[in-house]
Design a protein that fits this description.
401 residues, mainly alpha, Arc Repressor Mutant, subunit A, two-stranded antiparallel sheet, 18 helices, 7 strands, 45% helix, globular, disordered N terminus
């Protein structure tokens, strides 16, 4: 490899060997941490280190975060791209992630060699990474694609040992409409509050004081209302229209410069109805110490939203799940489940029960099908998918798909 940057066996090696350090952005000047490590975290890092034959935990964490950044970009979970940051091989290039066959590996046990580096008194496991990677992580957090640096690192490490599904899809593929969600990750309640552009449009829809449908906006005026860039909103406009949050003018006068408005769709009606009329005081399942619930605040944390969606989409209402069982049956990490599950109990979204096994007692969780919040979110999902299915039918009739 040309130059002296710190990159271990990166990506397509033959191509990388022809590049200089400027292309690689290889120098690692930014410090990041996997905070509050648990027994699971230690085992996860060591399992990836051994499977990838990496030198130490620091190198392992750096590799994991670069892999996850590439995944976020290639799966369109963030609005930025490699082009924006003018990088080529700092993170895996387009298509690399989908080509990997990460076999599912069991976590190593402490009896195996190599895990003696664990310091259980440490408050974090640190590493250094290129400054541009830290900038991308910060933007991914700002867009609510991940909850934290630790969340991103853990997801990347889990992906590298087959504990997360990696669709065979590149960022160059066009958005396709599927009338039914395949899993909680594809539910509208995950999508509609994920990222600055989605979140901004949804929040604007909820807060909009005008009668429905609203007046027409040019794209520039709408982005000012929403609080995101024109590029970010343009990139997701078809999806937002598909879910019924926006309507595009079909007037020939607007062909060159389209106008948009918030329609009087069922999706919008439900969002507005919940915002205006729901109050925790009337919800018998919500904890007494919760006096107010803002929908955008409730769904504004990606980890909590994904956990709620898992209970609605994938959890069996007749099965009680421990925290470990939730992690085993979902794409959610231990830290995410641990951080948000008790909050879902206070919100009445899930019920709890204490069970005993031998001398041990632990808590299990079941979805509360009577919760007004759950009922509303299920209705919102159905409305958004129904609207998208109608859009698909109309597009097919017009020969546009």
């Amino acid at each position: 490899m040309a130059g002296g940057g710190i990159v271990s066996e990166p990506w397509y090696t033959d191509d990388v060997n022809e590049l200089a350090d400027g292309d690689l952005e290889a120098a690692r000047y930014a410090t990041v941490h996997l905070s509050d490590p648990t027994e699971y975290s230690y085992k996860l890092v060591e399992t990836v280190r051994q499977s990838e034959t990496l030198e130490d935990p620091s190198e392992t964490i750096d590799r994991g975060l670069r892999v996850e950044l590439a995944y976020l970009i290639d799966s369109n979970e963030v609005t930025f791209s490699r082009v924006k940051y003018d990088i080529r091989y700092t993170i895996p290039p387009p298509g690399w992630i989908s080509e990997q066959n990460y076999d599912k590996r069991d976590l190593v046990s402490y009896g195996k060699p190599g895990i003696e580096w664990v310091d259980r008194d440490a408050k974090s496991i640190g590493t250094t990474t290129p400054r541009v990677c830290k900038d991308m992580i910060d933007q991914a957090i700002e867009e609510n694609a991940v909850d934290s640096i630790s969340d991103l690192i853990q997801r990347g490490l889990e992906r590298m040992i087959g504990h997360r599904e990696t669709p065979n899809k590149s960022s160059n593929e066009e958005y396709t409409r599927d009338p039914k969600p395949k899993s909680h990750e594809e539910y509208p309640i995950v999508t509609l509050f994920k990222g600055k552009a989605y979140y901004g449009v949804t929040d604007f829809t909820i807060q909009q004081a005008d009668s429905l449908p609203t007046r027409w906006y040019r794209m520039g005026d709408l982005t000012e209302k929403v609080g995101c860039s024109t590029t970010a909103l343009s990139n997701i406009q078809d999806e937002i229209i598909g879910y019924g949050l926006l309507e595009r003018s079909n007037s020939t006068e607007d062909a060159a410069m389209p106008r948009y408005r918030i329609p009087d769709s069922l999706t919008v009606q439900l969002l507005r109805e919940f915002h205006i009329n729901y109050t925790p005081k009337k919800d018998p399942y919500v904890s007494d110490d919760i006096s107010d619930i803002s929908l955008t605040e409730l769904m504004g944390y990606t980890g909590r939203t994904r956990l709620i969606a898992w209970f609605l989409a994938d959890a069996d209402e007749d099965i009680a799940y421990s925290k470990n069982k939730i992690t085993d049956n979902s794409s959610l990490g231990h830290n995410t489940v641990r951080e948000y599950i008790e909050n879902l109990v206070k919100l009445g979204i899930v019920d709890t029960e204490e069970v005993s096994r031998g001398s041990q007692t632990y808590t299990v969780y079941t979805v509360n099908t009577e919760s007004p919040i759950n009922i509303f979110l299920s209705q919102l999902n159905n409305a958004a998918f129904a609207h998208r299915s109608v859009e698909e039918f109309a597009f097919e009739k017009l020969g546009l798909v």
